[in-house]
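Bit of a strange request maybe. I'm writing a small parser for structure token strings and I need a real example to test against, not something I typed by hand. Could someone generate the tokens for this chain?
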Amino acid sequence: NRAIMTRQLNNHGFEVITAADGDNAIVQLQHKLIDLILMDIQMPGKDGLTTIREIRGAACHAQLPIIGFTASADRLTHQRIIAAGAQRVLTKPISEIDLVTAVCHTLEETIAC
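Reply from user aminoacidic:
Good idea to test on real output. This should exercise your parser:
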């Protein structure tokens, strides 16, 4: 859940900005400097795949790292998330160490973990 992941990342020194849905995520991107997106694929309203595609369609965010989250361990689902534009996919539930490791690996060139 979003609150647990936020707390876990805050505990490791990351500043976290949350969005309740895809539309709110797009608004956050327009108003804040974001280094990485953690995108749940199942969200109310606009789903994560649609939101990732919309983000990738904006030239200023085309290279922004995105980690997709899904409760599905299905390989096809993971492939669809990558095809939409995510750099990696994590299956929920995820342990704190796996979450932090994935974030650090994704940001290794810009943030020291």
